[in-house]
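User: Sequence recovery, please. Input:
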């Protein structure tokens, strides 16, 4: 798995142009630096460098990885700097909101670190769909929330920071009648009940269009844990960003339903949302940084 240390070594190698100078700058032996670069290439399954007598040159893949590495390393430095300024955060309360999907993985990871770093900060977490969270934010019942932002992006009352995306997937229990099928169409999926959270308008329109149904969702529930339990014990299907069911798929509790190419293309659209023109409290700033540390680039 790619890590920041490997990216630091890669960036140093590009900066210095050869292994000897880069290894010295990184306080490594040349064999250790070479192993780190090889491990990065193996984790990404591509060649990043062309090695020759004059030094190294970047491949096309290497150029792309370098751009992302520089952004990630800059973000890591910014996070460390910002967190170091909050060492005196010994009290306070954070009113935090989350959509159902971020609440299944992204927010608990960030909240766990927050609780470890600043145990005296009290956090009240509310889980709701993006509409309910927006209303509560504007009533000052929340200071910050992370949720799908597709239907919020043009709202002048909000300050929004988009996060990276995860591909969307349809999933079922492992022994579902469709689990062994390939190249499924949406029409075949919707022969079975579909359960989902409240969908963004763009997703609902696409699902209605490809299915030919005005109301394609049979069961709407904004508690994703309930949706997963429902899918695990019935023929009900559901949809979600990949990150929130990756562990369940790896453990064999759920399976991804392979859709025909271009039959339904969706992805997550998480974002951090606060009130426009309002300065975040130290606790909210700290939580924002924790979430950004886990969000995909």
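Assistant: Recovered sequence (297 residues):
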């Amino acid at each position: 798995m790619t890590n920041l240390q490997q990216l630091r070594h890669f960036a140093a190698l590009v900066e210095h142009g050869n292994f000897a100078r880069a290894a010295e700058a990184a306080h490594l032996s040349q064999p250790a630096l070479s192993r780190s670069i090889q491990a990065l290439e193996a984790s990404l399954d591509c060649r990043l460098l062309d090695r020759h007598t004059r030094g190294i040159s970047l491949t096309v893949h290497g150029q792309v990885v370098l751009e992302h590495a520089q952004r990630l390393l800059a973000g890591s430095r910014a996070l460390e700097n910002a967190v170091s300024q909050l060492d005196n955060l010994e009290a306070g309360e954070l009113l935090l909101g989350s959509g159902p999907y971020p609440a299944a993985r992204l927010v608990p990871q960030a909240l766990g670190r927050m609780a470890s770093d600043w145990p005296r900060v009290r956090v009240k977490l509310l889980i709701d769909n993006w509409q309910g969270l927006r209303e509560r934010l504007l009533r000052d019942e929340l200071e910050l929330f992370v949720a799908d932002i597709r239907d919020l992006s043009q709202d002048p009352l909000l300050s929004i920071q988009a996060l990276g995306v995860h591909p969307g997937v349809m999933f079922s229990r492992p022994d579902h009648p469709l689990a062994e099928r390939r190249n499924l169409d949406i029409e075949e999926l919707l022969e079975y009940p579909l359960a989902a959270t409240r969908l963004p308008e763009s997703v609902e329109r696409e699902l209605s269009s490809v299915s030919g149904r005005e109301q394609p969702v049979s069961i709407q529930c904004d508690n994703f844990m309930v949706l997963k339990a429902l899918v695990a014990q019935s023929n009900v299907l559901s949809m979600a960003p990949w990150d929130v069911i990756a562990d369940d798929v790896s453990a064999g509790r759920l399976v991804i339903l392979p859709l025909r190419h271009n039959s339904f293309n969706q992805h997550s659209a998480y974002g951090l949302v606060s009130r426009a023109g309002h300065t975040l409290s130290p606790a909210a700033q700290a939580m924002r940084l924790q979430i950004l540390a886990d969000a995909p680039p």
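The CA atoms of residues 204 and 268 lie 14 Å apart.
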